[in-house]
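Human:
Focus on the backbone:
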Amino acid sequence: MDLEQICAGLKSAASILALQNESQKNAALKSVIDSLNKNRAAILSANKIDVDKARQNGTSEPLIDRLALNDARLDSICQGVQIVIDREDPIGKIEGGWQSPTGLQIKKIRVPLGVVGIIYESRPNVTVDAFCLAYKSGNAILLRGSSAALESNKAICAAIKEGLAACPDGVPAAVELSQSQDHADVDQILNARGLIDVVLPRGGKKLIQSVVQNARVPVIETGSGVCHLYVDDEGDLDMALNIAENAKIQRPGVCNAIEAILVNQNIMEKFLPRLEERFAGRVALHADERCLAILSKAAQKSGRAGCVVPATEEDYGTEFLDYDCVVKCVKDVDDAIQYINAHNTKHSESIVTNNRARARAFQNKIDAACVYVNASTRFTDGFEFGFGAELGISTQKLHVRGPMGLEALTTVKYLIDGDGQIRG
């Protein structure tokens, strides 16, 4: 990969995009939606090649689910682009303005970052999400997906470029896909100071750590998701069961699925047999010593004894991304908070309780990007937050945190007007 040449093209495209108005960028994105729909059959055909290859390689079904596309998911991807079109363009937005004591007129405005690189794993929807957010916020983007989704990404990127080319003001050079699967290309991207303004990793813990530890380019860190659900003794147990089922089982291979359920000791006897019944053998429950006795008894009665196993020390803080879940007893909300802050990845956490004081204490003391009361962690998502698409979930605290939408790819510039002032 000739990174210097690619980035030179992206930088040139970024300079054009930075000067385009909202109508021009929206027209180009609308043309991309039309192209994605026009090329739907080719995209799904390419995705089938990736999915078939993944199954042949023994990839787990939850991870295949992350890779797979269908008509409904393509509809959702296009809907996400439309929501980005409908959102206000952050570029040029005046964040503040004032006059200095010397009479200088100072304005603080939003501007693009420039050239963005994103390194991500096998989720082809990210190709569209990252592109449309970068484009609307005036940035050019270099996409580096995984080999598992290569055919899907090639077909999607070709459709994006076709859509941009079909629009009079479109800038097809604003998006490039690295098709090489040589890991040396990743190292090139991570060391491309002066060529790439920021890099985002989106994927599992190993990928994120590798990018953070090796990058010389500034990084916006997205996090793996070791998410927890705490069931309080003043919580609605029916609600807790519904939330636990949704947060663990709906899509276990995504970062906002829960990996642990913490149960207040006062309701263990009532709640745990109902949890075993609700999960009905669909999830391997890695239980601590106190929960193990109750869950094992319930599982033996139901004929699902093999689905309850003793938790190991390695299980605590593990992102399973599969049909596995830790179940642990805690004394109270403070015990739950202490455990979560020691084992989470600062992504998303939830409490089920009708005690308002405990709910607020949980939200105030938990160190995470998103903290829920009486709701599933599965809502941590740019689409659900109304952003349309997302770049990922930032678990760091500098620049941006949580689901990243348009403003995540912007910075500020100060514009100062004077009438001849000089500093004394």
Remarks:
- Residues 233 and 267 are 6 Å apart (CA to CA).
- The chain has a mean pLDDT of 94.
- The longest helix spans residues 22-38.
- The chain is about 40% helix and 20% strand.
